[in-house]
Structures are given as structure tokens and as C-alpha cells.
Amino acid sequence: MDITFKQVSYTYQANSPMATQGLRDVTLHFASGSYNAIIGQTGSGKSTLVQHLNGLLIPTAGQVIVGQQVITPLTKNKALHDLRRQVGLVFQFPESQLFEETVLKDVAFAPKNFGKTPAEATAIAQQALRLVGIGPELEEKMPFDLSGGQMRRVAIAGVLAMEPEVLVLDEPTAGLDPVGREEMMRLFAQIQRERHLTVILVTHQMDDVVRYADQVVVMEQGHPLKVGSPREIFADPLWLQAHNLELPSTGQLVARLRQQGFKFTSLPLTVPELLAQLTPQLRRVPVDG
Amino acid sequence: MEPLIRLEHLTYTYNNSSVPALNDVSLTIAAGQWIAIVGHNGSGKSTLAKTLNGLIEPQQGQVFFNGTLLDEDSVWAIRRKIGVVFQSPDNQFVGATVADDVAFGMENNGVPRAEMVPRVAAALAQVRMSEYAAHEPARLSGGQKQRVALAGVLAQQPEVIILDEATSMLDPQGRQDVVSLMTQLQAAGNFTIISITHDIDEAALADQVILMDDGRLIQQGPPATIFNEGALLRRHGLTVPLSEQVRTGLVKQGVPLSDQYLSEEQLVSELWTLHLNK
User: Fold this and answer.
1) What percent of chain A has pLDDT over 70?
2) A277 shares its domain with A185
3) Do B278 and A177 make contact, defined as CB atoms within 8 angstroms?
4) Which residue in B173, B237, B272 is closest to A41 by CB distance?
5) Are the Cβ atoms of A282 and B141 closer than 8 angstroms?
6) Are residues A265 and A195 both part of a single domain?
7) Cα(B13)–Cα(B238) distance, rounded to whole angstroms?
8) Residue A133: pLDDT band by 50, 70, 90 thresholds?
9) Which of A175, A250, A274 sits opposite B168 (nearest CB)?
């Protein structure tokens, strides 16, 4: 599903003395089926931006076009029913949104709510649970009896059970350990491929941006400062530093190596890329075996 | 010499669980050290920290603080010597202003007002938040909130500061702020820092790393020893530090680097000695 922002601005508490600008003149395009990352400092407008995707926020000026639906400052809440099914949102700590008595009921809630029969809703829920790696043996458990990692998977299954075409991930791995984080990110990538979803990921994890994103949007003070591929975005360490953005983890080591006198033609974004540029500059001995 | 903290054969199982969260853990922590307790979610690292100030009472085993057995009589005195900064900055504020909040712990401990005022000011200065004394805590950034939480702990003049995943919810800037602050504080004062984390780069700053899994102590040692075993870290749900990934990658290609873990700084200077055209 294609998504387009046309000169979108958003003001919090408009028409009051407390008015603050959340977005200003945002024009962006997210191609159908692409994986997009939104990066920027805390308070730069990342979350405000993604809340426009399913009408949680309505622009103060401009248009947001999601598939066929056009959202303008005049759009009424009632008109957003379809959009809310088509765009699934996974927030930080999604497990805090679980509420039903059993895992299966919790996941089946959304499809039921969007008009599926109980049997259809159950089938959809079971499919979504399998997709996130939750087996049938857990379906009748209370969500709160599960481990933290399992609860998070169930909550994500609840979003997938709406069968969305767009998946918005707002720092979905916050607080997870490295292995849990990697599993979750791989899960999202797999779901994206299998279901041809458009993904919008809000994150501070630059290594994830490098690994998964097709397009990166850098937000600053409510405005997209730069849009491009990860390679384009991370090409200029000085620019990143000037805008308080981190490099992928290889970047800091490369900066140290450059300072010492090593040469790099382009910024390596992964360990294999780093090794490929570094090894020819070093003395080597034959390897045993 | 008696270590600051000595744990002997701690075992603890939560009420609703059949598996012990701590399983026969024994270790010692010397005063003035920076200790990182690492392990994946559910490995027992937070439970371990909660036994130190008696928030959790192990079913078996004993905790000694400066040689004193932690029990019903000693727990209050020991708790005053241990400050904790928790993961979520939003769940730990009670005061209407930053200064009130920092004073709260001292009020609880009956510190006279005349003494409280300068201690609040000093603690806020230590975390570089003096100019925010009259601000509402809710309006601060995540990193600023954690610095205020830390000031609340410092104002109580503890001997031990426990950071329970205190940086895991912060953005990179906030995390950097808190970590560099902790480095300075430890260098300047007489604190023992116990940092519970799964950020391996943060753990690299510690004097000692304690690796936990399945409620057991897997290994305790300096970062160099623990990080040298990439397979061990991965097996226990952690990542391998970048410098270690690069070192092993280069060694495989025949670059004659030392066979020990190297910090980024050490790695870069050792690589320079192997550079072909200086």
C-alpha cells in the first residue's frame, strides 16, 4: 500500500497558548512493500509522524494518502474505520495492551471487531499466532501467565490478525536483550516478505536500519531533513555528528581507525565490509590448515 | 580483607514458578569496583540485585554486607547504603519539582531539613541538573530523568549504586550522558557500582563482569576474560562486542593479532603496528 505525505503539518494543542508544532511541511513517499526506517533524536517528530498513518492524529494542514484513503484536516473520525484495520501499529511494550482471558481470545478480538464471524476470527488468530511462533498449547493460557517475550509475540499476533497492509513499528524491541531483539527484527522481516507489507520502523538502533531498511528518513524538529538509502544516509559521519545521530556500530570503530591513519574509500556498514577494506592494509601470515 | 558484598549459596524461587530464579549463587564484590551483571531477559540478574538490599529474601543462602549478615535486624541499615536506579524513568518520580524529588529519599530517612537543602543542591550539581531544580520531572527528557533519579540516590550518600537496566530505555544521547556520568562519579568518589545490563559495550567499562543464565553464575571475571569467549556469550543470549568480532575475523584471515580480547582502543593501536605502508 503506497503512502504519501503532502505538505503535512501538525500542531499540538492548536489555537491555545500551549500550541507546539509537531510536524512542519512534511512531504514524503513510502512505496508499497518497502521497508522504511525513521530515525532522529527524541522529540524530533518520529512518533508524531507515524501516528498520522492510521488517523490517530489528523493533520492540521496538508494531506496524508494511505492507499485510496485521503486524510485531510477535515476528515472525520468515522471515515477512518477501514484505515485502522489496514494499518497495524506496534508500540513500545505492546504486551501492556493485552486484556482478554485467553491468548486466543485476545488475538481474535480485532478480527471479530472488524466484522469476522467467531469461527473466521479464530482461524485468523491461530494463523497469526503460528506466524509469531506461538504454538496451540499456549492458546488457552491467560496472557499474563506467559513470559515477557511470549506476551510480546501474542500482542504482535493481535496486530497481524487485523491482516494489515501496513505495519508501523514504534521502537518495538525496547527493553529486549540482544538475542530477543534480533529474533523480533527477523520475525518482522519475515512477515513483511510473506505478506508483502509496507513497514515503517521508528528506531534508534542504527544496525537494524542498515540491515533491514530500503529507505531511511531522518527527522529533525518535525521536518524530514534527509531521505535516502542507509548507505546514502550514513555516508557522511560529520553530518551525522552535527545532527546528533549515531553511526552503525562499525562507524565508530572506523572513525578511530581513520584517525590512526587507515584508509577507507566508503564507510563500511557491516563487519564483513569492514574486514574487506581493512585486511589488505595489514601484514598477514599464512593461516594453518 | 572482607569484601563489601559476599553472597553464599543463594537460591530463590518465585511463588508462581517451579524453576529457581537464582540457583546456588555464590560470589564476592570488592568495595570501589564497577561490576556489570549481564545475561539475557529472565537470566536471574535482576533477582540477584534485589537480594542485595533485601527486597527479595532468598529461601536458601546468605547475604553479607561489609561482613554483616543481612537479616530482619540489619536490613534497614543496609538498605540505606544501597541506592537503586530503575529501568523506566517515568515510574520513579514522586515530587512535584526536580528538587522535591531528589529530597524525597532523605525525607523518608529523617534527614533534618537544614542538611537536606545543601545535599539536594550538591547532588543536582553532580549530575549537572542544577538549573532544572524547579522544573517538573515529567517534562524532562529520558536521559535527564535518569540523571535526576541518580541525584536522588546520590543525595542519600550510598556506598553502592545499583543501576537496574537504567539506560535501556534511553536514546543513544541519553545513554551516553548517563554512562559518562557514572564513569566520572566512580572515578571521583568511593562508590561501588553494580550495573545490570545487556548492553555489552556498557559492560566493557566494568572492572568485573558477572555472567548469569538460568539463575546460575556462569562466570565472573574482567571483561577481557569474559569477552574473549564469543561462543560463551552467544550461548547465553548476548552479543559479542564489535572489537572482538573484528579481531576474530582478522585472525581467521591470517592477521597476526594477539589471541586475547582487545578493547577498540587496544585493537586500533595493535592494528597500526601491522600496517603495511606507514
Assistant:
1) 99
2) no
3) no
4) B173
5) no
6) no
7) 24
8) confident
9) A175
* Lowest-confidence region among A157-166, A231-240, B59-68, B103-112: B103-112
User: Residue A119 pLDDT > 90, yes or no?
Assistant: yes
Q: Do B249 and A260 touch (CB under 8 A)?
A: no
pLDDT cut 90: percent of chain A above it? 63
The gap from C-alpha B126 to its chain's centroid, in whole angstroms, comes to 18
Taking CB atoms within 8 Å and a gap of at least 24, the contacts of B176-183 are B177/B143, B177/B147, B178/B143, B178/B146, B178/B147, B178/B150, B179/B205, B181/B127, B181/B128, B181/B147, B181/B150, B182/B34
- Under the banding of pLDDT at 50, 70 and 90, the label for residue B278 is low
For residue A150, being part of any structural domain is answered with yes
Whether A193 and A265 share a structural domain = no
pTM of the predicted model as reported, rounded to 2 decimal places:
0.82
The mean pLDDT of A127-152, rounded to a whole number, is: 88
- Residue A230's domain comprises 3-246
Same domain, A43 and A128: yes
Q: What is the edge-to-edge ordering of all strands in the sheet holding B60-65? A: B22-29, B5-12, B60-65, B68-69
**A287 domain-assigned:** no
β partners of residue B119: none
Q: Is residue A286 part of a domain?
A: no
Q: Tell me the residues of chain A between 203 and 222 that have a Cβ less than 8 Å away from chain B.
A: 204
Instruction: For residues A233 and A259, state if they share a domain.
Output: no
Q: Residue B255 is nearest to which of A41, A175, A284, comparing CB atoms?
A: A284
Find the mean pLDDT for residues B41-50: 88
* Catalytic member of B159, B165, B202, B244: B165
Same domain, residue pair A177 and A259: no
3-state secondary structure of B202: helix
Q: Which residue has the cell 524532562?
A: B140
**Domain identity same for A89 and A45:** yes
Class of domain B5-223: alpha beta
Looking at the structure of chain A, the number of domains it has is 2
Cβ B217 vs Cβ B39: under 8 Å: no
Among this protein's residues, is B270 annotated catalytic?
A: no
**With an 8 Å Cβ cutoff, is A238 touching chain B?**
no
With CB atoms and an 8 Å threshold, state whether B42 touches A148. yes
Which chain B residues touch A242 with a CB distance below 8 Å? none
- Interface ipTM: 0.73
